[in-house]
Amino acid sequence: MQSRYCLTEGAGALAHPPWGAAPPPWAPGRREETARMIDDAIGERTWCLSEVDIFRDLTEREMDTIAAAAPMKTYTAGEMLYAPQQPCEVLFILKRGRVRVFRVSADGRALTCAILAPGTIFGEMLLLGQRMYGNFAEALDDVTVCVMHRADVDRFLLSDARIATRITETLGRRLADLEQRLSDSVFKSVPQRIATTLLTLVPEREPSALPLRPGARHPQVALTHEQLAALVGTSRETATKVLHQFADRGLIRLARGRVTVLKTEQLRDETG
């Protein structure tokens, strides 16, 4: 008897296959689909590493080994990755979204230490023997991170002289940035600090890039007034007042949770 599913029945023969809506692994196309899913999963894992400078010269095999020890985890906007009451001996590799690292004073004021972008590693201060117990890390957006526990960091990262040196250099740069901001908080006015912070956070353009054409997209900073105030060390009310002064002069444009920089060079003149 001829099979009802033979090719002679035409293009519609498999319109209603015998296995229903959920084809088994051996069904046509399933093996190729599974292979693609495996490749995509590996690519997702290693992306966390490939976008981070400290891993820039690792071989594919080294990347796969480290990626297997750094599973991905997601956090929703506003969720804490760690807090003083929950110190964690892990290394985070930021894949998507932004993370704010901050401290809180005894009187309840928040001081933002850093706004971290994708491709950044953080949590390394604790791993290098320094205390992070006073720090909070908050997801500003929906965030995806790769998480590596201390034993794996010791095994795969700190044991590699190349990576260990780069982690130390990264830590040094962050401490230097924080020292500069603390110095600014003493010697610069609030308007100068806000102008400096906005210019620090906008995406950098190539020095040879042509000036923006009328109607072209201007650089934006996705922060609320309260978040910006915490970053420069002032009150939300003061930050809002300064931002509106800049907006009235045409230097920036304000929207909910966003600041658009319209005149970069004029804003740079405000940094002092």
Automatic annotation (TrEMBL):
The keyword Kinase does not apply. PROSITE patterns: CNMP_BINDING_3 (PS50042), HTH_CRP_2 (PS51063). The keyword Metal-binding does not apply. GO terms for molecular function: DNA binding; DNA-binding transcription factor activity. Residues 188-265 form the HTH crp-type domain. Transmembrane segments: none annotated. InterPro entries: cNMP-bd_dom (IPR000595), cNMP-bd_dom_sf (IPR018490), Env_Response_Regulators (IPR050397), HTH_CRP (IPR012318), RmlC-like_jellyroll (IPR014710), WH-like_DNA-bd_sf (IPR036388), WH_DNA-bd_sf (IPR036390). It comes from the Bacteria. Gene3D superfamilies: Jelly Rolls, Winged helix-like DNA-binding domain superfamily/Winged helix DNA-binding domain. Residues 54-174 form the Cyclic nucleotide-binding domain. It holds the Pfam family cNMP_binding. GO terms for cellular component: cytosol. Keywords: DNA-binding, Transcription, Transcription regulation. This is Cyclic nucleotide-binding protein. It comes from Streptomyces regalis.
